[in-house]
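User: Predict the complex with magnesium ion.
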Amino acid sequence: MATTSAPAQAPLIAARGLTKRFGSFTAVDAVDFDVAPGESFGFLGPNGAGKTSTMRMIGCVSPITAGELRILGLDPATDGPRIRGRLGVVPQQDTLDTDLSVVDNLVIYGRYFGLTRAESRRRAAELLEFAQLADRAGDRVDPLSGGMKRRLTIARALINEPSILLLDEPTTGLDPQARHLLWDRLYRLKQRGVTLVLTTHYMDEAEQLCDRLVVMDKARIVAEGSPRSLIERYSSREVTELRFAVGVQETLADAQLEGIGDRIDRLPDRVLVYSDDGEAVGPAVHARGLRPETVLVRRSSLEDVFLRLTGRTLVD
Amino acid sequence: MTAPAIPEPRPSAGYLAAYEHQVLLYLRNWRGSLFSNFAQPALFLLAMGVGLGSYVDKGGANATDGVSYLQFLAPALLVSSVMQGASSEGTFPVLAGFHWVRRYYAMYATPLTPRAIAFGQLAWNATHALMVGSIFCVIIALFGAAATPGIVWSVPIGVLTGMAFSAPIAAFMSTQRDTNAWNNIWRFGITPLFLFSGTFFPIDRLPELLRPIAWLLPLWHGVDLARSAALGTIGQAPLLALAHVAILLAMAVGGTWAMFVMFRRQLEA
Ligand SMILES: Nc1ncnc2c1ncn2[C@@H]1O[C@H](COP(=O)(O)OP(=O)(O)O)[C@@H](O)[C@H]1O
Ligand SMILES: [Mg+2]
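Assistant: Here is the predicted structure with magnesium ion placed in the model:
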């Protein structure tokens, strides 16, 4: 895999041949990537791809098995606590203290980074405003909604004003409204120049938040680039989805569609035609005597990139 | 770009912050436990010491080293109760830390080391043991159950005994996902120890053959030490007292070391 657009500045995170094994099982298989300051970098991949394992190595809480990893120029093996002092971590599974109030969660966390109680309280109040949780400051954590807990976790991760914010599936399991609210907060952080590193298995999330991303599948990185460039490289401008009547779809011969569009993918329930001009596909299909029940033209997305790279859909 | 100056975190600050978290948890949730901290010793002393004691004492005070049964029982009961409390504190907060609340993982995402996290838990357990023991000691005094001022030694001895249990139990519980193993520890370990470590009757009432087994009962070391200090007989066997301290200390230190190792293993897994 050719590395595109080598970051101009010294990378905040540099991984070469980064590997994580659990016993004989390889969860992360010799991956290479760089994250530049101020960049918003994503790991996109299905469940089990190795995203969390990678994030935990970056978070300096899981020793690397092989390869090389430098974060802020330091080696996690020898400088773990020092690096962790400059990271903000939003883990995949919540680790909020449900026996403490919302504000206590932030204040005690600040103490871990060596803040004085007064400074920690000051930042906590500020961050609760940012996370739109100021009115819940004295409440227990348990009754908060999933989206509120995620926002609180993000606020907590910001208490040390981190150089890098690590987010492992920040919006998985949230309803659309909660997701958009969270994206908005993350977008503000990005605009302030905070370096974001996130994992997701949502295409729209990757397209919304990531300047650059790597596609992970089965412990390996299979592609790297900006969302746009990945779509251009591995897909086409537009995709036409054809749905045929039950029975027709199965008996359709490849030859009947050959030559239409740039490329064709046959899924169990529909046929995808990749082309630069999606509108032209419908008439072309009709001209061959085929009668699809529905014809849907849409812009190509990372979903298509993933399908092209792995032969599978991302969320099954 | 010039690399930002990254400060080296002071390790001691992490140890204190981890302890502070545990203190905060207590300050926010103490109401339920404090009442039982007072009520339990009072009930025990009332039932066992005063109730049962009135029968025992009729049989002649020489059955219990020449003091009333209540005075005989009090220091031992203090140590045993602190041990039980500290054993629980080595279990439930550890399961919560790793699985139910996962607060240890939150701590580990900061400059805190596994060692600091383990230390915070253990230091709190010792603090809690100190509180439980002190309250117990006050209640003993109120009951007139103190043979000599030496009863106050029961408190630090109770804390030491508590740590001799709490630390290794916490190390073991860090490998567990639920309370199944704990239920067995309590049923086949803690409860029999509570009953047969010389708390309620002197160990020399056991059949001759069984007596050496007392040395294998960790609680006996704490009970015997506290009792001899409280009854003023400790000077009669200073070497025995020293052996008690050494054994309890070895368990506490060994348990702490095991906890450091196991916490790291669990957090990095
Ligand atoms: N602690 C662990 N021990 C053993 N296997 C693990 C452990 N953590 C993750 N794995 C395995 O590694 C693979 C990658 O997991 P993970 O990194 O969590 O993937 P993702 O976050 O992309 O879903 C999975 O097959 C998972 O079962
Ligand atoms: Mg994951």
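Chain B touches chain A at residues 1, 3-4, 6-11, 13-14, 17-18, 20-21, 24-25, 28-29, 96, 101-103, 105-113, 267-268 (CB under 8 Å).
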